Amino acid sequence: MTHKYLILGFVVDAFSLDGTLKIISKTNFAKQRYKKGNAVLLVNAKSGEQVTVHAVSFRQNGLFDFVKFEEINTNDEALKYKGFEVRAEKDYSHLAKETYYFDDLIGCQVVNEQREVLGVVKEVEEFPAQLTLRVARKNQKDFFVPFIKVFIRNVDIDKKLIEINVIEGLL
């Protein structure tokens, strides 16, 4: 597989005097990730500094998660983590067959039925109708592939390969 950790969000500020962090959420499963006692990592992507913290309480409001961690107990302590990523270790055991973490798809080569390389998945975007792969091509504009069975013929995460059905107008 690819990365060992998932990014759950980014610390944008301290929220209260008790050290609660205000986190812009990047996970669809915040309630499960921040369940009382669960450990997550706070990571400074620039310096590599990592701190393991344990959730005490959680609430959500719009795009933000408000999480109190056992190890952070004052506003000043919380401010030290402003700008840090919040990460959790990936657990593949609960994923259903043919489901993937978004970041496992990023970096996969996208090929057509003849196995010709069309590009590389740059991003997985969530639109109201479905998930969509943004595929980067050399010296050309990116193209989008809806992540639905009509377009996706095969996904091989281990080989970092996604075979798609190319229809007229897709590229």
Descriptive overview:
- With 171 residues, the chain is mainly beta.
- The chain has 2 domains: 5-94, Beta Barrel (Elongation Factor Tu (Ef-tu), domain 3), CATH 2.40.30; 102-164, PRC-barrel domain (SH3 type barrels, Roll), CATH 2.30.30.240.
- The chain is built from 3 helices and 12 strands.
- The protein has a 6-stranded antiparallel β-barrel. The chain has a 6-stranded mixed β-sheet with strand order 10-9-8-7-12-11.
- The longest helix has 5 residues, at 75-79.
- It is elongated, with a radius of gyration of 19 Å.
- The mean pLDDT is 91.
Order of helices and strands: EEHEEEHEHEEEEEE
Helical percent range?
under 10%
Mean pLDDT: 91
Distance between the termini: 28 Å
Structural category is mainly beta
- The CATH class of the largest domain is identified as Mainly Beta
Q: What percentage of the residues does DSSP assign to strands (E)? A: over 45%
Whole-angstrom Rg: 19 Å
Q: What's the name of the CATH homologous superfamily of the largest domain?
A: RimM
List the helices and strands and how they pair.
Blueprint (H helix, E strand, L loop, with lengths): L4 E10 L6 E5 L4 H4 L5 E5 L6 E12 L2 E6 L5 H5 L5 E5 L12 H4 L3 E3 L5 E10 L4 E7 L2 E7 L5 E5 L4 E4 L7
What does this entry show, briefly?
This protein has helices at 30-33, 75-79, 102-105, and strands at residues 5-14, 21-25, 39-43, 50-61, 64-69, 85-89, 109-111, 117-126, 131-137, 140-146, 152-156, 161-164.
Q: Key terms for this structure?
A:
8% helix; Elongation Factor Tu (Ef-tu), domain 3; six-stranded mixed beta sheet; 46% strand; mainly beta; SH3 type barrels; 171 residues
